[in-house]
Amino acid sequence: MDDSRSRKLVHKHSFAYLLVVPVLLAVATAVVLFVHSDLNMAMLYSQCHSRSRLNGLSRLPIIGAPSCFIVSFFHEALKSVRSLASVSVVLSFIAGLLTVSTVESARICNWPNLLIAYPTGAWLVFNLIGGALVWELVIIPSFFHQSKAVLRMREGARNSQEQVEVEIRAQDPNLGSARRHLKVVAEVFAIPISVAIGFVTPSIAMLITNSPIAIGV
Questions:
Q1: What are the residues whose beta carbons fall under 8 Å from the beta carbon of 132, sequence distance 6 or more?
Q2: Residue 113: strand, helix, or coil
Q3: Rounded distance, CA 131 to CA 63, Å?
Q4: How many CB atoms sit inside 10 A of residue 182's CB?
Q5: What is this structure's pTM?
Q6: How many whole angstroms separate alpha carbon 208 and alpha carbon 31?
Q7: CB-hemisphere CA count at 13 Å for 206?
Q8: Membrane-spanning regions, if any (predicted)?
Q9: Percentage of the chain lying above the pLDDT 90 cut
Q10: Reduced to 3 DSSP states, what percent helix, strand and coil does the chain have, rounded to the nearest 5?
Q11: In the chain, at which end, N or C, are there fewer CB atoms within 10 A of the end residue's CB?
Q12: What is the DSSP letter of 2?
C-alpha cells in the first residue's frame, strides 16, 4: 500500500475512532451526575420555583427560577472550604478552556466552522444548561471535524494545487496562506485581557465574597 493511500485511510477512519472518546466521557458524566444526585438539589430548585429563596431574582419571568437555582447552588457550594477549593479548580479549568476556544475562534483556518468561529452560543449553553456534555458531544466533535477538513485541504494541496486553491478561495482568500494565524494581531492582547476581566475577575469576586450579586455576575 502506497503512502498516499495510507494517509487517506488514516484521515478517513481515525477521526471516527476519536469520537468514541468524548461520547464515552459524556456517558460517564451522565452516570456520575445521576449516581451523585442529591435530593437537596431538587429541594433547592423547588424553593426557587416557589419564590421562597432570592425573592427578587426568582420572580423574574422565565429565567427567574433557573437563575435563582444556579446562584443558590454556588452560594451553598462555597460555604465549606473543601467545596470552595473544588470550585476554584473547576473555574480555573474553565478559564483555560475559554482562552483556548477563543484563540481557536480567531484562527483563520477555523472561519468556515461557525461553531468554532463564533463560540458564544455554545458557551451560553455550556454555562446555563449542558455543562460538560456540551463540550463532549458538541464542541470537541466540531474541532475534530474542522481538523479533518484542514488535513483534507493539505492532502489536496499535495495532489492538485490548483484544485485546492479554487476550494480555498471559495471559502476565504486568506485561508490557505496563513491557516494557523490569528485574524488580527490585536487578538494576542485582547483575548487574555478579555478573559481576565470578563471571567477571572468575577470568579475571584465570587469565591472571595460568596455574595449572590457576585455569583450572578
A1: 25, 26, 29
A2: coil
A3: 17
A4: 17
A5: 0.64
A6: 32
A7: 26
A8: 15-36, 56-74, 81-103, 123-144, 184-208
A9: 11
A10: 80, 0, 20
A11: N
A12: -
> How many CB atoms neighbour CB 51 within 10 A?
15
Longest dimension (CA), the chain: 70
Nearest to 22 by CA among 132, 150, 145, 151: 132
Of 102, 127, 120, 122, whose CA–CA distance to 183 is shortest? 102
For residues 68 and 54, is the Cβ–Cβ distance under 8 A?
Answer: yes
| Whether 22 contacts 139, CB under 8 Å | no
| Identity of residue 87 | V
Distance from C-alpha of 125 to C-alpha of 138, rounded to nearest angstrom: 11
Contact between residue 14 and residue 148 where contact means Cβ atoms under 8 Å apart: no
Segment of 39-53, 99-113, 152-166, 199-213 carrying the highest mean pLDDT? 199-213
Here the cell at position 55 is: 425573592
